[in-house]
Structure formats: structure tokens, C-alpha cells
Write the C-alpha cells for this entry.
Amino acid sequence: MTTKEIIEFITSQDSHKVWEAACRIINMGQDYDKIAPLIAHLPLIKAKTEGLHKGGGLVSKQHFIDFAIKTIEFHESSHECPCALYVKEYQLNNDVVTRMHQYDGFDPNREIEKGNVKILNTTLIQNNQGYSYLVECTKCEEKYQVEELEYHFQWWHWKRVIKNA
């Protein structure tokens, strides 16, 4: 999907197209060069997605849209390594309860395929509940502990590993 198509989809107010573009933005969120052309369109993206009935099944499509916007904002204003997005918290628009969320769709295996991280260690979580990964960012060498979890769908919880002083 080209930048032009992403902008057309996310501003279309068609809930499926908006969701599809949001997922694409999140997927390329580790690559500044791919996100940079979207920064100028951020006000339009926010305006066109505000108050849109997005629907969703087990996970609201708002979750994806808000994190896509947070990804563009991150690249607009941050000088951190984009791996910080793995643990970035954000607030859902129109959420019933005001609380912070962390995007839980970053599969470390897909991040490896994109060259964003490398796995240092993998262990099976007790009672075959999924896997725990120790991963390292290929850009800045920041380490993360990632737990693969599943309930109605598979998801991943990332935590930055605290360095010993």
C-alpha cells in the first residue's frame, strides 16, 4: 500500500478501510522513512477518524486507529529509537474508562522477519501457556521481555528489561 493509498484509506471514513490503513501504519512503525510522509497529514487523519463508528469484535478497531496515530505522533516529535513503540502507552479515544493501553499486536517473530529485533532466548511458559522471549532491538540494542499470551486471540506483552547499574 502506497502512502497515498494509506492516506485515502485512513481518511475514507469507511471503517474497514480505516482499520486496514491503521494496521499498515502500525506494521511499518519501526521505519521512520515510511512514516515520515504521513506526518504532514496527521491533522487530517485525526479529523477524519474522530467520532467514526469503527466497530470491531473482541478488540475495538479504535485500538488500532489510536495506536496508528500515536505511531505517527511518535515519529513527528521523538528522537528515541522506534523500538520504544513496543512499550508505548496511549489512551483510547471514546473509551468507556479513562486508562492507558499498550498495543499488544507486536509478534516478535514478525519483528525478526522485518529485521527490527533478534531473539536472544525463548522459553515455554508454565503449562504450555505460550512463550516468553528475550529480544534485542537491532538498532539500539535495547532489550525487551516479551510474553506471548492467548485467550480469545493471540497477543504479546512487551516489557523493557531494566539494565543493572
